[in-house]
Amino acid sequence: MKNLDLNNVSLRELNQELQNAQNGAQYVVENSNGKHNIAVGLNKEQSVTINGHVGYYCAGMNQKADITVEGNAGSGLAENMMSGKVHVKGGVSQYCGATAHGGTIIIDGDASARCGISMKGVDIVVRGSVGHMSAFMAQKGRFVICGDAGNALGDSIYEARIYLRGKAQSLGADCIEKEMQDEHRKELAELLKKADITDISVDEFKRYGSARKLYNFSVDNAY
Amino acid sequence: MCGIVGLFLKEKKLEGHLGSYLSDMLIEMTERGPDSVGFAIYDQPTIGKQIKCTLLNTLVDSGEELNWDEVRQALKKQFGNDTKFEEKGSHALISVETDTNTLNEWLNENFPHINVNGSGRVIEIYKEKGLPKDVIASFNLQSFTGSHALGHTRMATESAVTTGHSHPFSTGDDICLVHNGSLSNHNRWREKLRKEGIVISTDNDSEVAAAYFNWRLKQGDDLNTALTKALDDLDGFYTFAIGTKDGFAVMRDNIGCKPAVIAETDQWVAMASEFRAIAMLPGVENASIWEPEPGKIYSWHKAA
Amino acid sequence: MSVNESWLLESKTFSKDAIREIQRAAKEGIYSIRGGGAKRFVPSFDDLVFLGASMSRYPLEGYREACNTAVTLGTRFAKKPIELKIPITVAGMSFGSLSAQAKESLGRGASEVGTSTTTGDGGMTQEERGHSNLLVYQYLPSRYGMNPDDLRKADAIEVVVGQGAKPGGGGMLLGQKINERVARMRDLPQNIDQRSACRHPDWTGPDDLEIKITELREITNWEKPIYIKVGAARTYFDTSLAVKAGADVVVVDGMQGGTAATQDVFIEHVGIPTLPAVRQAVQALKDMDMHRKVQLIVSGGIRNGADVAKALAMGADAVSVGTAALIALGDNSPELDSEYEKIGSKSGYYFEYQAGNCPAGISTQNPDLAKRLDPVLGGRRVANYLRCLTLEVQTLARACGKSDVHNLEPEDMAALTVEAAAMAQIPLAGTTWIPGKTT
Q: Could you tell me the pTM of the whole model?
């Protein structure tokens, strides 16, 4: 376990150390104080715990690393993540998991607007609620929301699967409720388990996905 | 495009630290706005019939000196010997027994290079071109006291980098606005508001927003109504923070892309474009922290 | 019955083209989507001429007296700037809009003459990386196929904010071009009509972009030059903001710049031509004291060495070619006229890149068509074309007495039209008059 204090090391030094770490390395980062671009571009099976709040793009483009934020995260958490796991104990700002291709993102608090925007294969589990335009143009992956969703959930969604426990203020264009089948209950149970959520049953969720009516340009969906 | 911050102190004993908190917050927003910086401070109200005005020497960008002493003497001669006058960097803070319009007219005639940054009973507005840390030092912001404040660091988009284009913009007595974003219909609003008699002196989109609120409030709307109407009237991307004599309000546009975060404790409420501008405030570890929802008004007032 | 000639006077307002478009709209009920750039006439580099040396200046000899063409891009912050042997690069075009063979050909051609090529909306292919010595990786709103491994493999990163054919709009790729491989690379279902986002998914505005650029630098060890590409519109402001946000290189793409598929109304009516855009960009850099410190790449309708020389003379550090490179590859070749006829077109007119049935095997994902393009031969053609452009620029530069093509100046040119004089702020030929500046 190695301690890195952002009061003593620069962001460049911090990221260099983390990026050059070996598999199995363990780090704790102190005094993050909302700074941007912490632990970006990691690609080893390592663990990083950040004791505080982080700014933009924390864990950006993560590969393999297991990153925990013991606070809130700013915009673009784990954007374009490829693999690994990112766990935020507080809430996250907008664009969480934007365009992420793989791995798992777990948010204990709420996520604000555009959570899972253009997601391309990542799994996102939010214990709380998500803001407007979440899962906008979501292409692939699974998105579990234990609370409510803001306006226009899943607007222009492709093949991503949304599991929502609460209510959506509104569904976006081409996003519809779909039947929960055994296959879906099974994958949802696995996702909840991954996020250590044991007090919520899969039966409380509804599934949403694409009506696939915007897939080809026609007079009716020109905008 | 900019960084904005706001701080509202609930506990009176913190008021001596307002300037030092605000300067830390503004310095954190340097990357978002390296061109200029400005702040509005709400401190002790004036006594009697006097109003408080912050005067800006608009020649400051061209490096021309202004003989403030001459201004001081002329003010006293015109508005009486009770006039208080204090030079602060490139600005002067005065207390004078008149109203804002009269003072503006008199200044236009006698000292056309002086602008009134802000006026009212409690507000003081300071702004200047330059890096936040330099401007803050030149005004000695750390020494300011008060109950609440707004600040702004500017990255100019389409209008010039000058002190005159800097925020906060006054929107009437004791009211000011800071803005992060970019309005897309400000030219038509500038024309309309000018026809309504509102003075707009720059091509800056944020000044139009300030003028818009000025106009709405003059029409008799309260701040919440004016903000609600702004959601329909002002197109584009924005996070606004508006200071009033007893508090402040925050609102984002309906698309809600420009960032904003609010933190609240029993001692204070803070807002900023990014959390890092709040991270150093005392007791932040116990604050409740959230992002303002798009199209929703958040406001705080001093208990009456 | 004989035709009454006076009835056949074509209306300038309701021209044949305008009538045909109304009829099409009434029938189809949706905007028309096509490829290519603006087809209408716009003031261009054609309206400028060079003032060759004679008595007051002395020209250089063609072979013995060297005229340097090399340029280094990314000298502001990047640890590893890009060194190009010629000031002409190949613009970003996606795998998806182009076949893998076309991408490979462009890489081969560019590498042969010591310049760079650029990826596009569809991510990086092995064909392209493997055959490009210098590859610029585009970072776009859609982030299709975007991954950190490819980012680290790139020689430079181009953050695409906009494109000359459609400033303010996102990309499009119609279903006929989304085959299995394209769909897999983009994580999309096959055969759908795909519309890319117009804003980036995780930042809005230059204040956010500054943070995004730091992230890209942190992930790539501050090695790679970061370009910011904007479509020409409010070019003065956009250039200054790109510099403030931390760009090493600014790429300005004028309205003549091509696209694989965009609404025709967008291509023809949004953005300004390359000519005024270069001047505004250079002005912004000069006002910030950043000219030659942040490099400027100009694109949009560059066809020949004269265009390149004029862009450089106006202050650009390099240019990019897109459409012209495709034509060099074999696009619009008269040899294919019987094939073009089958799809209702003709060589010299073919910009239906969106349709995916390009007989030259370039703008297609149909394997039978794509294999018509031999990447080795294609690469040779592109290299020849770039070589020819370079020789032309050198010829013009030498004629103006320059031993480096970057020493060309606006003062080496005159304008042939009042419009060009006003837009480029170059005096009308035979006068000292610059509209709006001198009387």
A: 0.93
